[in-house]
């Protein structure tokens, strides 16, 4: 009887373990359900942002040779560095190792010590700067809509002086409200909607650029960008550096890569392999779209539409 009872107990425990494995992952959290497609949607949402607005100006400064080359170069850099970071999601074994849920967890597991505090300071400083950049970009965009309505009503001779401060406050308050939603990162359909929106406004920009090219009767710009004479040597150097910064800003998403990878369902295959596929797909699609948006827009701007 004792042996029979032990066998029954083992069977029951085994059944409970199987049932638990269907509901929970190896770390005791609810099963992750992310795939290469949902991860790609997260990445595209994170990558395509206000940075796309300054790409045409950036290529105008660098020219038709250096501009696309630098854009493809940064695409390769973000893919390569993201692939390295994807391997840091689990410590030790890529399939069964301890999970690192955030970027700082990965830094702590692989570096430790003072480097964690230094990396944390840099990351939060970066997030702070990005938040400021998006707040300013959003307020300028809302102000542009209001000014456009004002010009239609009162004519283009009217200066339509307005302040962007109220729109900054509105956008900031909205961010605070949304940040209080629990498990906001688990709303998978939100990234799908956001990715569609990113492609939508980028497509609108692309269509407007193509229309303007048709109106102008050709594409502006040159092989080497804005020439010295139209600008001083110092301005040429400064604008080229600005262009590099704008292109780099348009590709940034590494600060949330680990969080995106943490939504992918458990292996097989390993989360790092799925993340690398999603990164390759997303960066390739984004780069193609960036090149189209930047190249179709008439390259005659003298200042950036948006800066990082």
From TrEMBL:
Domain Amino acid transporter transmembrane: 32-295
UniProt record, GO biological process: amino acid transport
Positions of transmembrane segments: 36-55, 62-81, 121-145, 187-211, 280-301
One GO CC term on file: membrane
Signal peptide start and end residues: none
Superkingdom: Eukaryota
Main location: membrane
Subcellular compartments: Membrane
Pfam family, any one: Aa_trans
Keywords assigned by UniProt, alphabetized: Amino-acid transport, Membrane, Transmembrane, Transmembrane helix, Transport
Cited PANTHER family: OS05G0424000 PROTEIN-RELATED (PTHR48017)
Name of this chain's protein: Amino acid transporter transmembrane domain-containing protein
Biological source species: Asparagus officinalis
